[in-house]
Amino acid sequence: MFWFRQGLCILPVCLVVLHDVDVLLPYISDTANSPPESCFFGLMTFISACTCIATIYAMYKYIAKLGEDKGVAFCNRAALGLGLLSCFGMCVVATFQESAVEDVHLTGALLFFVCGALYISMETYISYCLFPYGSSLLVCRIRLILSVISGVVFLPSILSLQLDPRLAKASAGCEWIVAFSFVSFFLTYIHDFKVSY
């Protein structure tokens, strides 16, 4: 998550200082439209995707062991698949810049955000199913809040841009909120990975 945070926080600040993007809520992809920014963005996003794959798989194995007799095996496998698809979408976004191949880039972004929102919703459901053996009630509630935020904010990010291009700033703001809700959700795994059974 360190690399994802660096890519989401440091790069946009540098780009604003260099006047390469709009100061008020640039799209995440706008930070990677031209070299050298696109190279840095691609590298950070690819490293983040690899880290996410490792974390998603570790959580899958953790839940598989913890929830053997809790009836969450199907949901756990589905969450693993959605998480891996989301990471694939992140790799597509990193590889195909919006200015070069817009349709492929947008397809990757849609895959990343839709599968990511579904992934964290399923993981939240699994957390509640495994309570009190997995996460604490506080962590379950934080996950619920983050999954609701990502689900509620994702739709306006797409619809506002499709309905009225003048709402681009609202759409960009929603995109940033969804991205940070994903990062925050992964941070809730720290508690689970610290607990040993």
TrEMBL record:
Transmembrane segments annotated in the record for this chain: 7-28, 40-60, 72-96, 108-130, 142-161, 167-190
Pfam families found in the cross-reference section: Frag1 (PF10277)
Gene Ontology cellular-component annotations: endomembrane system; lysosome
Keyword Plastid: no
Mode of membrane association: Multi-pass membrane protein
Cell compartments where the protein resides: Endomembrane system
Domain called CWH43-like N-terminal: residue spans: 6-194
InterPro entries for the chain: CWH43_N (IPR019402), DRAM/TMEM150_Autophagy_Mod (IPR050911)
Top-level lineage group: Eukaryota
GO biological process, one term: regulation of autophagy
Keyword Transmembrane attached: yes
Sorted UniProt keywords: Membrane, Transmembrane, Transmembrane helix
Family according to the record: Belongs to the DRAM/TMEM150 family.
Designated name of the protein: DNA-damage regulated autophagy modulator 1
Species whose genome carries this gene: Neogobius melanostomus (round goby)
Lineage: Eukaryota, Metazoa, Chordata, Craniata, Vertebrata
